[in-house]
Amino acid sequence: MLVTSKELLLDAQKHKYAVGAFNVENMEMVIAVIRAAEETNSPVIMQTTPGTIKYAGTALYFANIKAAAERSRVPVVCHLDHGNSLAIAADAFRAGYTSIMIDGSKLDFEGNIALTRAVADFCHAGGIPIEAELGRVGGKEDGLDNTATINPFTDPEEAKIFAERTECDSLAVAIGTAHGIYKGTPQINFDVLGKIREVVDVPIVLHGTSGVPDEQVIEAINMGVCKVNSLRICA
Q1: Which of 105, 165, 223, 234 could be a cystine partner for 214, CB 3.0 to 4.6 Å?
Q2: Does pTM top 0.85 for this prediction?
Q3: What DSSP string runs through 206-228?
Q4: What is the spatial distance between Cα 216 and Cα 12, in angstroms, rounded to a whole number?
Q5: What is the pLDDT of residues 152-168, one digit of tens each?
Q6: Catalytic positions, written as ranges
């Protein structure tokens, strides 16, 4: 069944687990993710990025995921990953996506708030939750290059203000992970994560989790991470 991310992530937050989120680019990937989710009896979030959308458009990808979700025994979310403009977010919303990420992390603080709030206004009016990002998750993904950044971590006090002013439904934070392939062993900054969790009520999202040691991912989930973007789910 097709559901929104809000209901899944609030349940994950309540019961201290995380929902896996996976980028899917064709029918075979959609089927593989669904089968894995059913084998583990786990809810799942399937994502498309702006780069993927350029290839075939939101309507085709949504139809693919929707058809698979309707036959699935587990809850499925169709999510826009790293939406980088108001136009892309609106396109995914109109296509029927059940979760929208707007990534304004390249903007300054006020610019990020303004863009996120604008997307939140029309998505919430239609009952669709949004994910936002504050701070810069490093590395490169789908044309997104955040390797050059002064402060690699999300500021907890800014996160509190940001969540309150944007009314985002979940928040992706920068705590030491990066998009792409790691050259060494990544280290999550649990001190920063703990401070964010103390002042932010909405579910926390961890991007760039592929290659992060399982024990770090598990600890992050224990500390309140509710959505994990990854190529795999830890054991």
Answers
A1: 234
A2: yes
A3: E---TTS-HHHHHHHHHTTEEEE
A4: 18
A5: 789 999 999 999 999 99
A6: 81
